[in-house]
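Hi everyone, sorry if this is the wrong subforum. Our group has a chain we'd like a structural model of before ordering constructs, and none of us has done structure prediction before. Sequence below.
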Amino acid sequence: MANSKLNIEADEQPSQKKSKKGLLIGLLLALALGGGGFFATYSGLVGGAPKQDAEAKQDAPVADLPAVAFVELEPLVISLSSSARSRHLRFRGSLEVVPGHEVEVSNLLPRVIDVLNSYLRAVEVTMLEDPTALIKLRAQMLRRIQLVTGEGRVRDLLILEFVLN
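Answer:
Right subforum, don't worry. Here is the predicted structure as tokens:
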């Protein structure tokens, strides 16, 4: 038995030295390859545009923005049902209008406010509290606004404030 213990201990010692040596070699290789990969990427040899191309892209002329006009909506405070935790919804938005139609859309703002008020009162409170529902709400409100103002006048609805109190 004593002899078998010596054999087991003798077998364990060389394997420990090899694992440390292998670990050290692996660590050195990882550092060398990581540094080489960083240099190749940083210098533009692999996976990126060289610095000259990036500078040329920055100097390229930028296209002009399309002409837009905005009509500000007056802020809305909408009372929600009494069963909800939140008692009020504060909404503020702006309409992106085709230039030249600002006056026409401004004249229809009372109808737009009425449509938004009616729609937001009818929406379930659980939907208002869902952060992902804002995209659906925005699309629904925009469609209703476009029906009131007529096709081709209002491009988009920008939501500036949407707060449940």
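For your construct planning: The mean pLDDT is 84. DSSP finds six helices and four strands in the chain.
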